[in-house]
Amino acid sequence: MYYLQKKLEKHISYAISTAFNDKIDDYLNPQLVPATKPEFGDFQVNGALALAKKLKKSPHEIAKILIKELEKNKEFNVLCLPPQIAGPGFINLKIQNNYLIQELTLRLEDKRLGVPDASSTFKKTVVVDFSSPNIAKEMHVGHLRSTIIGDSIARILKFRGFDVIRLNHIGDWGTQFGMLITYLKIVAPKALSKANVLNLGDLVDFYRKAKKHFDEDIHFQNQSREEVVKLQQGNPESIKAWKLLCDQSRIAFQKIYSRLDIEIHERGESFYNAYLQQIVDDLQDLNLIVTDDGAKCIFLDNIKGKDGRPLPLIVQKRDGGFNYATTDLAAIRYRFTSQPHGDGANRIIYVTDAGQSSHFASVFQVAKRANWIPKDCFLQHVPFGLVQGENGKKLKTRSGETVRLKDLLDEAVDRARIDIQKRLDNEQREENQDFIEKVATTIGIAAVKYADLSQNRITNYQFSFDRMLALQGNTAPYLLYALVRISGINRKGGNLNVSTNQLEFHKPEEWKLIRELLKFDDIIMEVEEELLPNRLCTYLFELSQTFNRFYDQIPVLKAKEPVKTSRLLLCRLTRDILKKGLNLLGITTLERM
Ligand code: ARG
């Protein structure tokens, strides 16, 4: 009811200004908020209290005057029943049934389900920097969180009408490549001259072995350092080896992305190499750089170390090498630069664990001081907490190792398969293997994604297969099942594709569902603003519960016309919103399960 709220705000502001215009000289916010309880109506105006203070009158008196003013307004009366005063001077508003039906009718015919399209006013480009694992290192649960949350944010912003660029800022550059290439030369020198000689298999294991050599063998260490230099100088053989290693990791990452249905464009750290020196030179020209013990750094404002002194952000090390932060500065410039020399972004969103908050705060500050953030553009770090095991500690396997993403997804699917098999046995239902496989995969992946998204991302989250796969509660299986129920109506002969003509509602269960359905746009706008997908999850869960109560308590298929069609249409809109909502969370839905 986004537009409705805007309309009401306008009417109330108008009432304030006509009633008190000569007595207040600034704009007074009507403070219109959704009602906290259904018995209070739909909205509540809290502004009378602030006005009362200003005008030195009782809030009750002010509320009375405002209501009188509002009731003179014909347009307002079409929207609301006569307003009621509650408590010391709050005004409760209840929307007219006719108006709710009018809104409902619009949504039944609207592909966007009531959500305004931002691109109709202006086109904006948003970069979402997410997932971003590191070559030759394990893609861990932190990267999984970033992938799931980032994907959902990108989907929501795209649906709202923004141009979204999904970037994978993978760690594909750095000193570890010296070590990897040196090791590759020992174990498979042929791989450097011929294609497809080598199956590196598990690159993470390869990395571990190379690191062992590095730590134990001084000769290997020296060689590795030389390799880094060669690579940085663009030596063709080194570049070839580096590419080979990147390709290998890419295959592993891509497998995970395919399973999770993630679309992402790779533009790793190495892409910005060519811009790094310029970044340091420009910062130098701006007089922001201080050389401290040979390292070039910027001392940060208001970000202090333990000793109370301002912390430095190092952009070039003593040996001339650049840092993670230097690359991020180059990336900011590139992303804000207009196309075709950059991305032309207006907003850049970074989805990483909260541990990187101070890194981003520092980088954003330097970008700001260097004037690299164009007018009306902004940078946003979207942090999230740790993934913990059920014991509240860091997530580990039983034998104490870090959990591999592949194993984690496999287990979710395996457990979902066992659940389905049990359900089928109980219901004495026969289904073929393809069906079981499809349902198990969909539910397993959905459960992992939903469990993550339904938590407020800022807090740590406890990973539990049992909880995420439960058919009851705020879980993916519960939501998927609500959709399956609606599909069932269709199979039982209820035609959901009837046209919208005469709508008629009498029951509180219907009105409750209608009000819930009309909230979809508010929720999407809220998520866009706060980048908290858990709000959408809570909404979809409440919508499913409200729908289930409606469907359990009043007849749909057995109702008489025009009530039957009206109820079928509520089922259809519920289906469309649930489907769209789950799609925005990156979750595939099912017709049957
Ligand atoms: N590769 C980094 C990591 O694994 C995440 C990169 C996030 N994006 C960025 N522009 N710094 O922690």
Give a written overview of the molecule.
The chain has 593 residues and is α/β, with parallel strands linked by helices. It is built from 21 helices and 14 strands. The protein has a five-stranded parallel sheet with strand order 7-6-5-11-12, sandwiched between helices. Strands 1-2-4-3 form a four-stranded antiparallel sheet. Strand 8 (290-292) and strand 9 (295-304) form a beta hairpin. The longest helix is centred in the middle third of the chain and has 25 residues, at 236-260. 35% of the residues are buried. The mean pLDDT is 92.
- Please indicate the percent range of residues in DSSP E strands (runs of 2 or more): 5-15%
Report how far apart the termini are: 33 Å
**Number of H/I helices:** 21
Give the overall form: globular
User: What compounds sit in this structure?
Assistant: arginine
Radius of gyration: 29 Å
Number of E-type strands: 14
How much helicity do the residues have? 40-55%
Query: What's the story with the biggest beta sheet?
Result: 5 strands, parallel
Strand order of the largest sheet: 7-6-5-11-12
Please mark out the parts with pLDDT under 50 across 5 or more consecutive residues, or reply none.
none
Residue-averaged pLDDT, rounded? 92
Alpha-beta classification: alpha/beta
